[in-house]
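User: I'm curious whether this sequence folds into something compact or stays loose and floppy. Could you predict its structure so I can see for myself?
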Amino acid sequence: FHLSHPDVLLADLTFPDGEGLALMQEFLASDPELSAILMSAYADIATTVDAMRAAALTVLAKPLALDHLM
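Assistant: Here's the prediction. I'll summarize afterward.
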């Protein structure tokens, strides 16, 4: 990340060795203009609201339909 600055972060909310919200916040600390989109197979309304309050543009349901990214 330090060598390039992506326009968009697409990350899962949960994964074996970390947490998507923490990852998003780490990226946003380096680049506040970054657009962050999270995805989850288990997101409920409260989790989605928390993610959006933390600056995620949206939380997409998995399995991810690629046409939702266009």
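Summary: The longest strand covers residues 35-40. The chain has a mean pLDDT of 87.
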